[in-house]
């Protein structure tokens, strides 16, 4: 197929690498991509937020499938424009994408669908925030209602810190004050064609910047899959996936369909396993980052078949996706100052040596080519790249990932050293 992927981060690079790994030879374009992605797809100068421009490119180049990677084009309605012109697109329309674009919308859909989640209070001003704090108590959970690049959430027992976070986002609109839920977190992806869903393999990511889940929230500093400890509570991964499919994914998809806003694309369920059962923390309307980087390398079923079936409404004809028995972990290399004030423009050395480690692949998030030919790639953002390691067991995968990332040099960079440590013992 001819496939156009919209986006420029590690999630998009992981999608493209999975498509490249198939036996079929796809012709893959990316808009805009980054220096690492450019080694695996053809970059094109199309604004991914401009539905008309994306549609024109797709028509001109006879694109068979458009895959929307990040949330911003979805919330901007790019998928709607493509569908209106008969172009298969993997990604929900603007209305359904509000499941991620608005925390209030997501809570309303969950309530209507009877999906288990925590209590939430919508607060439009400081007085309402204070009242919600009194009602729900500490620890305080404050979420920006709109998109915040993974950094709009704070969980803290410090009331002053929670209030300051709310005050930071209130000028842009209301915030949500939510009930604190305790337990291990799980990310579970569902492909949807608006009616049928197919689950991928669960993963766990690490949101805090520092070891032992300390420091500020980030977009994600690492992840691993599968989750062997699910067997202890649910008996098997399949039993867990079946429960979440029945109690979360299908009710939400059916509710959106009943409201005339079918969800076609990737439903990301952020879950927490509380003593009272599984609860939804949040939904995203696209593949998660960094979980995509470790879920897709384990996928045996051709990704292109799944994406096209979802985009064309034929997912019910697809069997459940098959995954290998191998495990995967990823460790994120971040620029100095991330997440608050990342330093960019610095050269990255040692990439070839890192990529040469057995079972390792490098997935680029924010890299660019230097102005002068022959120079090192430079870092252009906070999360620079992912070191992904695949192996038969977690101890080997961790050894490979950390051996590789130690070979990479980026002045001032940092990464967590405890990714998947629990499951590797």
Can you put this structure into words, describing what you see?
With 425 residues, this protein is α+β, with helices and mostly antiparallel strands. The chain is built from 15 helices and 22 strands. It has a 5-stranded parallel beta sheet. Strand 7 and strand 8 (153-156) form a beta hairpin. Helix 6 crosses helix 10 and helix 7 packs antiparallel against helix 8 (159-169). The mean pLDDT is 95.
Which key features would you list for this structure?
single chain; five-stranded parallel β-sheet; alpha+beta; 425 residues; 15 helices
How many helices in DSSP terms? 15
Q: Give the proportion of residues in helices.
A: 25-40%
The poorly predicted ranges are: none
Number of distinct beta strands: 22
Mean pLDDT: 95
Give the percentage of residues in beta strands: 25-35%
Compact overview of the structure:
With 425 residues, this protein is an alpha+beta fold. Helices cover 31% and strands 25% of the residues.
